[in-house]
């Protein structure tokens, strides 16, 4: 029989994430605000339609939102790395990014 590592009861947390999309053709902007209860993080991203392409607003929404979510993921990973360092964790090599960060 497997026993839990601690006697602490499981905890449930709720984080609030708001995603705002703004379209000013040909640009779509996504803004994400994540409230963890302890911290608030914010990320932004954009998508731009080629003027020769057919206007399909959903595609711009998906691209901008996806990019903003990826940016939020990077912020969370950076925050976790900082927290681990504060706790005295030894430094480990960070994995290579899947793609280069946008400047």
TrEMBL record:
SUPFAM superfamilies: Rv2632c-like
Pfam family, one: Rv2632c-like
Superkingdom of origin organism: Bacteria
Record-given protein name: DUF1876 domain-containing protein
Organism whose genome encodes this protein: Streptomyces diastatochromogenes
């Amino acid at each position: 029989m497997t026993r839990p590592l601690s006697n602490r009861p499981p905890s449930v947390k709720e984080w609030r994430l708001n995603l705002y999309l703004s379209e000013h053709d040909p640009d779509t902007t996504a803004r994400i605000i994540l409230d963890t209860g302890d911290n608030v993080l914010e990320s932004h991203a954009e998508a731009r339609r080629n003027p020769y392409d057919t206007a399909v607003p959903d595609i711009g929404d998906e691209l901008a939102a996806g990019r903003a979510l990826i940016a939020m993921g990077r912020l969370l990973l950076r925050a976790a790395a900082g927290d681990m360092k504060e706790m005295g964790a030894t430094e480990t090599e960070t994995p290579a990014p899947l793609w280069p960060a946008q400047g």
